[in-house]
Specification:
2 domains; elongated; mainly alpha; 77% helix; 10 helices
Amino acid sequence: MARSSRVISIQNPEQDKIAAIRELRERAINLRRDVSEGSYGYDELTRFYELIKDSESTLEMANSKLSERAGLGSGFFATVARNGRSPKLQNFLRALTSIIEVSNERLVHVDARANSTNSVVVSRIKRDRVQLLSLAQSLHVLAREEIARLDANLPNDPDRIARHKKQRELMKIFADGFEQISKALTALETSPNEPVLLGRAGRVVGSMGETLTTWWKENGAEAMDWAIRVPVFVGGVAMLGWAGADMTVGTTAMAALVGGQKVLSAIKARKSQGKAKAK
């Protein structure tokens, strides 16, 4: 049976979070504008209920805190939609203002964090671009080889099938991610100090780190045993750490197993061994 050729794109959870907050803020601003003339109807009230429902998860702040922030008591956000209440216009506007203000604060925070992370990555790329490019290219090749090995050894046992699927999924993240990083770093060969190209390369590295972090948060507990024995994983985590990617989970600790030039030497040695065996 032919295997699917669907390309799995590298996700950017941080950008998705920013987009969700901006969308929530825009809805709140538009609704505040619509009701600020002095009245509201069923349509505006329905939009208000939906905003309250979405605000807790999008802003990562408990409804009780949002209510207190608006000066409406801790139970306002939790009960107004549930009980089908039509709040006073003043409280309606205060609740919307609370959502908008918290959204603005969240956006300032994530934008500052993204800019800080990207500046670190850019400085690392400017300093160690040649070594990082060589390592990214090698890791891309090794990840593809690991995928081919997994595809050639499909298990029959249900537990092993589930683990096999996760291994392939992780290797696909590495293969696609390091391919994109390699392309971004290669583009800098003729213009190593070009700000646009440096910024793009920094974002690609950051996106790869965020993708790996997201996957590890979901699968790390069950993957720990086998992942740290896969050279591509250890080398990949170390390389991303070397490049300055912000990986805020325990995977960064694994980078201590190998680091910097040692990673490059280890990966190159493994690649050389593979070529020798192929002869």
